[in-house]
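Notes from hallway chat w/ T.B., transcribed later so I don't forget. T.B. wanted the structure written out for a chain they're using in a teaching module, and asked if we could keep both sequence and C-alpha cells in one place. Agreed to drop them here.
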Amino acid sequence: MSSTKLDWQRALVTMSATVTSAVVIVAVYWMRSVFIPIVLAIFLTYVLAPLVRFAQRWRLGRLPAVVLVAGVALAVFLGTTAVLAQQMSGLSESLAENKDRIIGKLAQARAAIVGDGESRWGKMLGEFEQAVAPRHPPADGAASVVVEPVGSDWLSRFDGILGPLTETFGQVAFAFILVVFMLLAREDLQDRVLRLLGDDRMTDATRATGEASGRISRYLLSQLVLNVGFGLLCAVGLFAMGVPYALLWGFIAFLMRYVPYLGTWVGVVLPAGFSFAISEGWWQPVGVIALFLGLEVISNNLIEPRLYGTSLGVSEVALLVSAVVWSFLWGPLGLILSGPITTSLLAIGKYLPAFRFLYILLGTEPPLTPPVSFFQRLMARNQDEALRVVTAAVPVANPEAVFDDVVVPALSLLVQARRDGAFDGDEEKRTLTITREVVEELGHEVRGRGERAAVGGRRLRMLCCPASEEAERVSLDVLVALLPENRWEVRVTAVDTLTSELLDGAAAFAPQVVVVASLPPNGLAHVRYLCKRLRGRLPGTYVLVGRWGEADAATVTASVADTGASAVATSLLEARNQLAAYAPVFSDTSSESVLPSLGGPLIGTPPATAVGHHTSSDV
C-alpha cells in the first residue's frame, strides 16, 4: 500500500513539473514583449549597481548617484545609436555604389570554388538548382507578361520597418525607466525576495542573495568591460587597415562577444566579407581575420582569467544549449542575453537551495562523486569508462588511497543496492565480474606507480574471509593486491562456504593472520559470529576485522571486543599498515609462544618495537 501511494505521489509530482514547465516556456515565448525589457533591465541593473555604489562612496546620495550613472549610460547609448545609424546609412550607400565590384568579386569567388559552369562541379550545382527550383522558359512566340501591383507599396514597406523600430524603442525606453527604479529601490526589492524565501531562513538567505548578487554584478560588469574593450580594439585595428565603417564592425564584435564560443567568429564574417568585396587584393580580408583571431587568443588566455578571477563555472554545453533556446524564444536579443541569463541562473542555483537543480544542470562541477560515478559505470557494465573514472581519481602522492576513496564506497553502494532488491536476474553477478576486472587492472597500474621492494624471508600465511557478501570478497582481492606476493601466501574463502568447512580449512592451512572483511551498514552480527568461531578453533592466530569504509570505528571496536578479535581496521591502507607492523613478529620462527598472547581479546595498535622498526613498505 505504501509503495502504491509513493508511486502515485511521484507520478503527480512529475505531471505537475511537466505542466508547470510547459506553461512557463509558453508564457516566456508568448509574452516576450514584456519579459525582454524586464530581463534587459535586470541585466543593466546588475551592471550599473557597482557604479552606483562607487558614486555613493564619493558622498553622493542614492538619488544623485542613480541619476548620474543612468544619465551617463543614456548619453553613451544615444551617442552610440547616432554613430551606428550614420555608419549604417553610409554602408547602404557604399553597397549601392560598389554593386558591380561586389558582384564581380562574388562571381570570381564562385568560379574559384565551383568553376565557370563548364566544370563537373558547376554542372552538378546547376542540375541541383534546376531540380529544386525548375525554371520553365516561355513558349516560342509567347509574350512575357509582367503584372504590376496596383498602387505603390512604399507605405507597406515603411510600416514593416517602422513597426519593429517602434516596438524596439518602446522596449528600450521601458527597460531604461525600470533600471532607474530598480537602482533606487534595490534594498526594497532584495527584502521582498528574502520575504519570499521565508523568515525562518533569513540568515542563510541573506548570505546567499548578497553573495550571489555581488558575484553576478562583478561578473557582468567585467564581461561588459572586456567586450567593450574587444570591440574598441577591433574598431581601431580595422580603421588602421583602412576598412570602412570600422565603428560599426567594432560594435557588432562587441555584441557578438556575448554569444558563447561562436560569437567572435560570427562577428568577423561581416567585416571580412565586406573587406573582400571592396578591396583590390587579399591582404586586407586576411588581416581582418588575423586581427580577430589574435584578439580572441589574447582575451581567452591572458585577460579573461585575470579579469574574471574565480569563474562561476558555467558548463560549455549549458551555454550552447542556452544560446539555442533563448534565440528560439526571443530572437537575436535572446541570443545576446543567453550568456548573462545562464550565468545568473547558475549563481541563483549555487546559493539558493531551492534552485539547486539549476547549479547541477548548468555548472561545471561533476554531478556525481567519484564513488557514485564509478558505481554507475559498473551498473551500466561500461568497463572502459569505469576504469577511466577510477583512474582519474588516483592521487599522485598516495596512489593506493584510491581503493579506500573510490572502490570501497562503490562496493558499499553495490551491497546496499542488492539489499534493496535493485538487481534483476544475474545483474549482480555481471556487475561483480566487471568490478573484479577493473580492480585487477587498477591494481597493476597502482603498483606500477608506487612499486616497493619487499623484504625477504619466509612467506606468511593469511586467510581472508568475507562476512556475507560477494562484494566483500572483491574488497579482499583489493587488500591482497596491496601486498607483495613474495611475502604473503593468501587464501580467500568463498562467500557460500559453510562455517564448519571454513574452520576445517583454516585449521589445515594454519594461518598466522585471519582477516574478516565486512562492508557497512550491516553484517556486524555475522562478523562477531565468525570471530568467535575462529578464535575458538585457532587460538594463536591474529584476527583482524576489516570494516571497510566505516565512519564510527569506536562502535565497531566495542562490538567485536568480546569476540577474540585482535584489531579493527576501517580502511584497506590501515589494514596493510597493521599487517606491516606485525610482520616481523609473524616472521620470527622463535616467537611461536608470543602468538597466542596476540590472539586474545586484544583491540589496539601493534607493539611499539614493531612500529618503530618496520613500516608499511616492509610488507
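Follow-up for T.B.: Residues 312-365 form one domain. Might be a good example for the class.
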